Amino acid sequence: MAKHARTQKTRSAGGAGPGKWPADDLARLLADHAATLSEDVLLGPRIGEDAAVVRLGNERLVLATDPITFAADAIGLYAVTVNANDVAVCGARPRFFLATVLLPVGAKPADAERIFAGIADACRSLGCLWVGGHTERTADLGRPVVVGTMVGDLEGREPVSSGAARPGDLVLMTKGAGIEATALIAREKGEKITGKVGKAVLARARKYLADPGISVVRDARIARDAGARALHDVTEGGVVTGLWEMAEASGLGLRADGDAIFVREETRAVCEAVGIDPLEAIGSGALLAAAEPETARKILAALESEGIRAAVVGKFLEPGAPRRITRAGRTKTLLPPAVDAIARLYT
To answer: Which of 34, 7, 75 is nearest to 214 (CA)?
Structure first.
């Protein structure tokens, strides 16, 4: 999603690389062409928002869509999970899923079977229903691609926005940086880095899809119920991008504590092995939540009681204040990387 008004210069559209379209140009495109807020569009497209909220008759629906282009061996699980995350951080329960499955021309029936089984298993685990989509063989495609759409139910609650943070709110993060990147590296480049990280670390890293897991549905529910003002899902560009997107959506400054952003042993090992920064690598599995300080303490306690690790990683500042991150005693401007660290491995 993209915000129509920009508060800080971001990536230009001139660069050619994989990943999200440059934020400045995306904001312009959406301002020119996408639907604006109305009685039927309650939350529309802007940078930092993970889903849309629309009115259909007397009901309000939360809608999200995301493609999966990595992790061919678990692409069905990924597609369901990341789309469920996007509606969950809007305060909704994932209900109905659709998938467009694109397979290379040489794909075999077993390839489709594996993807379909992964989608079905993931939907069952999250309690949502797979209700439709489209499947085809596509020319000039080197690996499977699944584009998912999730419909969420607010169950009578008000939607939560990534852009609802206020000055003075603390930023909490769950689970850790680079969880999704850890699983991707271990699964797709494991043979090349075994000598650097060891078999035991690599084996644990391969299991990161489930433990600590790339879903934030439970995290979001707990944080919402405990009073979080704003929620955001860490995805492409890692925690650094997630923090920037949340500040951009809220129109606020931000002071981020990079040393408080925890990096698990396996994540640190595999990221060092391939030479990338875990704070700038795709990070589904980590949730960002904003709340005033007293509520933030309640959220931390609620998450801890459910066995979910969380910590305060920053504080939102007044509009117009700078966005900065401090790591190892050095402070610099907080900006999303031009290309996600994992995406660079594929170029």
So the answer is: 75
